[in-house]
Amino acid sequence: MNIVMGGTGHVGSAVAEALLDHGEAVAIITRDADYAPALSDRGAEIIEADVTDGGSLRAAFQRGTRAFLLNPPADPSKDTDAVERATAAAIVKALDGSGLEKVVAESTYGAQPGERIGDLSVLWEFEEALRAQRIPAAINRAAYYMSNWDELVQPAADSGVLPTMLPADLMIPMVAQSDLGRAAAERMLSSIDDVGVRYVEGPARYSPADVAKAFAVALGRPVHVDVTPRESWPKAFRALGFSPEATDAYSRMTAVSVDGGFDAPEHPVRGTTTLQEYIATLVAGQA
Ligand SMILES: NC(=O)c1ccc[n+]([C@@H]2O[C@H](COP(=O)([O-])OP(=O)(O)OC[C@H]3O[C@@H](n4cnc5c(N)ncnc54)[C@H](OP(=O)(O)O)[C@@H]3O)[C@@H](O)[C@H]2O)c1
């Protein structure tokens, strides 16, 4: 049995779908079984467990032979780095005594040691903890999620404006959740010695200007990028309800990512979903 964390979210649901497409037995973890009717209809088992309750998570892992691990994003009104460090540690602790033979974990492009740089360091530490424990661990570092643009359909449709903190012409590795799901499912099914880091992104790199163009085509109206200057990032995060700690971490993570060119590797695993296909599906209400 394959256990999938985050099975009601973007990536975990795509992992579960890809495994079900292979005819595999799947159980997804959620805090509330009512969140997952679609996967339940497809034959996935639903296990209620919570990362903050280590016993429930270990019991969920004990029902499988392999597991997909996803550190849940923290509520941005909290100290996100502190909360996500605690949940990552809880996931690793729950592996002890789980009996799993292999795990596949979701990490990020740009994962690196550091302080207050958000997921870049939190997921780096998660990777390090996984490398230090006994169960073989495959790590997929994901590019910038195309789903990060999901919330901008309405502003783009209403006002033709695509607000972003990223430079309009910066080429960024981006990836659709369906491609991340297939890439993770492949490693859930591969041999136990298929471990270590792989990078996963879409078929090409895209800029925010490309995103605006894709929205313009899909919406049938002009859309232009409105770049928030760096000095205004903290104010913009605060306006979205981020805590002072999350504002600091997200601002610093964005700066490191922009300045470092999003850590684009030469030979990533490439999915097939283009940005244009993703945005067209999103606008049609099906992403
Ligand atoms: N955004 C990016 O560009 C990017 C890039 C690379 C990596 N990442 C990483 O990807 C992850 C986010 O993936 P996503 O977008 O697929 O997440 P998502 O759509 O926000 O889904 C979050 C999932 O976590 C589960 N969850 C939340 N709190 C939980 C808890 N206390 N116990 C158990 N499960 C819990 C939710 O399940 P229920 O609500 O059903 O319980 C849900 O299935 C993060 O680790 C992030 O750092 C993001």
Features of the shown structure:
287 residues, alpha/beta, 8-stranded parallel sheet, 3-stranded mixed sheet, 11 helices, globular, binds NADP nicotinamide-adenine-dinucleotide phosphate
Which class best fits the helix and strand makeup?
alpha/beta
In terms of per-residue confidence, which ranges show pLDDT below 50 for 5 or more consecutive residues?
none
Number of H/I helices: 11
Shape: globular
Considering DSSP H and I runs of 4 or more, what fraction of the residues is helical?
Answer: 40-55%
Measured distance between first and last alpha carbons: 27 Å
Percentage of residues in strands:
15-25%
H/E element sequence: EHEHEHEHEHEEHEEHEEHEHHEH
Question: Mean pLDDT, nearest integer?
Answer: 96
Physical arrangement of strands within the biggest beta sheet: 3-2-1-4-5-6-10-13
Total count of strands? 13
Based on CA atoms alone, the radius of gyration comes out at 19 Å
